[in-house]
Amino acid sequence: MEHYPPADHGDRKRRRDCTGAWQARYRDPAGKQKAKNFEKKKDADDFLDDVRTRVRRRTYNDPKRGEITLVKWWDIWWPAQPERRKTTVNRKLSNWRHHIKPKWGEYRLCDLEYIELQKWITKEVKGHHTRRKVLELLRALLRSAVLDGQRIPVNPAADIELEAPPTKHADDLRPPTQEQCTLIREHCAMYYRPLLVFLEETGMRWGEATGLRWGHVDLEAEHVKVKEVLSEDKGTLFRQEAPKTGAGFRTVPLTPAAQEAVRTMVTQWRPKRTVSAIKGNGRDLVPGELVFRGPQGGVLTRHNFRRTWIPAIQAAGLAREVVNRETKRTEWWPRVHDLRHTFATWLKDLGIPEKDVQAIMGHDRGSKVTWIYQHAPEDVASRALAVMAPKEKEEPVRTLRAVAG
Known about the structure:
Elements: E1 22-27, E2 33-38, H1 41-56, H2 70-77, H3 86-104, H4 114-123, H5 128-147, H6 170-173, H7 178-186, H8 193-202, H9 206-210, E3 217-218, E4 223-226, E5 228-233, E6 236-241, E7 250-253, H10 256-269, H11 302-315, E8 320-323, E9 330-333, H12 338-349, H13 354-361, H14 368-374, H15 377-388
Antiparallel strand pairs: 1-2, 3-4, 4-7, 5-6, 8-9
């Protein structure tokens, strides 16, 4: 416009593509015409050679597709994700809102660089577990940008490294012994003792035990079926099908002590044998079907039980305060979950095969094919029970009684 004024052509508008002496025109894989201007003919020829090669090899990506911000890409990417468990969805949303979006939301996809992302993960995101989950989400977000018509040529988060998780002293990892578990029960309210016996004798998770329905218990066959759990999300309890992996659906053997614990609570509450379907958001808990409940007959929550557990371990002289090196919060040893570890240690000491222990505990197995074709879950439970509570040797059964209040 400066060198060639409008002259007799009137008030001519400036064209954005009229910069540079040479214009390289080409068509993308979709057949749409594109153009880019250069000052030198050689630069235009080189550019065309490169573009044509990438189009033939199907490695071409339109640079403009990577110029959207990460926030805009999230709005495209997130609705396309497969349906997840409610707790998983909320965790991902929390990591996006509190970590990724504030730092990188206004960056363009093409401007994200490996070294800056690595520095951010290492220096600014606190806690190993949080870093791992945030990085997992960021990698998936950018990996999809590579796959979606190559908005960016490579994933800058793909090779980000995490430091090793903080180590703990062996004392902080060691579960309580069976003798220590007995001591804790003696200092716990009488009402909760059947629950503690059940947790120690079955190794079931808290949500599996408190979500156990009478219809899933078979005392004659001496086992329970783990088919659903109680989970908590933002302080609200809800029902959902048992854990994230297929290993969560399993059969757990019942020792005589575990059977007695179940009978005690069944005598106390007379639960229904029906198993209602999980509908909608799972908020209909149907406590009338549950085996283990709170003292008032409602659903037993982890938060309320801590009010009994912590005084019990303190009175037993076993409580130890442990400061979490990442969060700096004070935690208590032992935890209720450590009863599961006590159970696993017991199975190991009894010499039960590892694949059977994994099946009973609900862990993923190294070889699912071996596990599926060798025996059914009921066989695992019965064979383990033969070792845990042999018929020819009568074991003393703990006397339990439930006391309301």
